[in-house]
């Protein structure tokens, strides 16, 4: 994930910052506990495509 792109992208729900999870290829919003997938190198920033993080799931960066 390009660092400059990560600086620009925000959560579409709360407009908060995102954390890149390299292992799962997701962008994580800690505030909303949502994980947005990255498919073929392109972040899918649609709320309907995001998965909710489990209560015990740690955010990896």
TrEMBL record:
GO cellular component, one term: cytosol
Family matches, as InterPro entries: Trm112-like (IPR005651)
Coiled coil: none
Superkingdom per UniProt: Bacteria
Family the UniProt entry places it in: Belongs to the UPF0434 family.
Record's protein name: UPF0434 protein SAMN05660284_01682
Lineage start: Bacteria, Pseudomonadati, Pseudomonadota, Betaproteobacteria, Neisseriales
